[in-house]
Amino acid sequence: MIKVGKIRVLAYLGLCILVIALLATCANAALFGLLKSKGKTVETTRMSLVIFPFDRDPELAQYLPDNFGNDVGEYVRSILSESPRYSVFLYEQRLTPVQRAKSDQILKDAEIKGPFFADKAKAEKLADLLATDYYLVGSVESYSYDRDKKVAELTLKADLVRGNGKVVQEFLVAGKADAGTQGMDEEEIRAIAAGKAADALRDKILGSEEKPAVGIPVSSKTLAVTSSTDSTPKPAPKDAPKAAPKDAPKSTSRTARRSSPKPAPDAGPVPAPPEPAN
Q: Which of 50, 83, 86, 195 is the most exposed place for a label (fewest CB within 10 A)?
């Protein structure tokens, strides 16, 4: 009887040891698999986005510098490039595909110059040449400056378009700025207003995507651009829209607006590009 009891105890202990070994093996395998899965990174494909220089209506020529539309486009490019969603670059005539097409007489000289928002067919042809996924065309719709109150208001209109020419969404944004207590002149106030409008455009394109951390380099003549409603001036990036010469004519109150129809209301944030298939 004693021998039989010992055998049963030993058998029971052996069975327990076997079960414990199996459980330990399963736990290690599960833990290894978990750690391995955490180590994997999901790669997202960044969609190419070309920013065309913004058009400037002839009615605004006496109030805005000649390169103002290009400066706005460059600033929009710089703030959109911080998004992981798009790979952004500014359209320029000196781009290699554009120059090659011109040399091969595929494009005429007039077809590589603005305006681009007013001539959608021209922009679509260039976007197809550059093989971009998306492109953005826009214009400075209105600008006004009240010299007595030292308040500048600026409106931008823009279209986000797929590479095949289909409009994804239309935007209409505005920026307003005043001198505050810093005694700024018109070109500095205008730069702030333009920056606010560009920031608002960025927010509409990216929707609820997290904004980049604050850390804007200071320039001696350009001031901060911000999308907030606070009109207190802050330092702005070097590539913010530049201002006109100080000796430009000024009036007590002036307003210049384009006669283009008002676009339909925004449909909301632009949907993110589809994830690549596994």
A: 83
